[in-house]
């Protein structure tokens, strides 16, 4: 067999394989497209929404869970500081010096948490919740700064400012819980309302 003949046979085989590959790819695309057409309406019907709305809802859920996963560590550190200050008050044995030492340690940590939160990517679905959480951290930081100054210099004005920041934190915290509950209800995400906090799973 001549070399030219061998080249023709090889080229023919390669051409057939390419044709078969294109056909297989085309069949896969058609099957995938038809499956999507059949699957999405059935799933969206189950959830009583249109296929387009179902896709939008799934994307919004992804945005919510991504955001919550990103802020979870910041939340844990922040609420630990808030709870530790409450423990100092309920203990009854802590004096002003104990509070001042606590604030000296807590304030820089809160400032680092504010920086960490600022670096987190947000999206339109969770932007309000993000802003409220930022306000929570800032209000507690400002409250502790004023309380520390009031205790160190017996300054009543700083103490009054601290109370206003506490009220601001309480309001932001309540609004954030309500916002989170509304997001969970809207996109049918399971959660447990414990009153002062909301328990959920990031998945």
Helix content: over 70%
Question: If helices are DSSP runs of H or I spanning 4 or more residues, what is the number of helices?
Answer: 5
Report the span from N to C terminus: 64 Å
Radius of gyration: 29 Å
Annotation keywords:
mainly alpha; 203 residues; elongated; 2 strands; membrane; Four Helix Bundle (Hemerythrin (Met), subunit A); 5 helices; transmembrane
Task: Summarize the helices and strands and which ones pair or pack.
Elements: H1 3-46, H2 51-91, H3 96-118, H4 127-153, H5 156-186, E1 192-193, E2 198-199
Antiparallel strand pairs: 1-2
Helix pairs in contact: 2-3, 3-4, 4-5
Tell me about this structure.
This protein has 2 domains: 1-46; 51-199, Four Helix Bundle (Hemerythrin (Met), subunit A). The model is unreliable at 27-46 (pLDDT under 50). A two-stranded antiparallel ribbon has the order 1-2. The chain is an all-alpha fold. It is elongated and about 65 Å long. The protein is built from 5 helices and 2 strands; from the N terminus they run αααααββ.
Structure described in brief:
This protein has 203 residues and is mainly α. The protein is built from five helices and two strands.
């Amino acid at each position: 067999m001549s070399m030219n003949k061998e080249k023709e046979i090889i080229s023919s085989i390669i051409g057939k394989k390419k044709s078969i590959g294109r056909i297989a790819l085309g069949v896969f695309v058609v099957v995938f497209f038809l499956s999507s057409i059949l699957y999405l309406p059935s799933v969206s019907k189950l959830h009583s929404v249109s296929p387009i709305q179902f896709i939008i809802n799934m994307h919004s859920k992804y945005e919510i869970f991504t955001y919550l996963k990103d802020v979870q560590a910041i939340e844990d550190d922040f609420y630990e500081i808030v709870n530790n200050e409450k423990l100092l008050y309920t203990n009854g044995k802590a004096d002003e010096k104990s509070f001042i030492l606590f604030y000296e340690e807590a304030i820089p940590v809160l400032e680092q948490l504010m920086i960490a939160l600022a670096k987190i990517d947000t999206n339109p679905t969770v932007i309000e919740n993000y802003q409220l959480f930022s306000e929570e951290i800032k209000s507690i930081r400002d409250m502790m700064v004023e309380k520390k100054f009031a205790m160190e210099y017996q300054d009543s004005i700083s103490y009054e400012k601290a109370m206003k920041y506490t009220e601001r934190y309480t309001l932001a915290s309540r609004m954030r819980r309500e916002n989170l509950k509304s997001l969970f209800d809207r996109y049918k995400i399971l959660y447990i309302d414990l009153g002062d906090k909301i328990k959920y799973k990031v998945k």
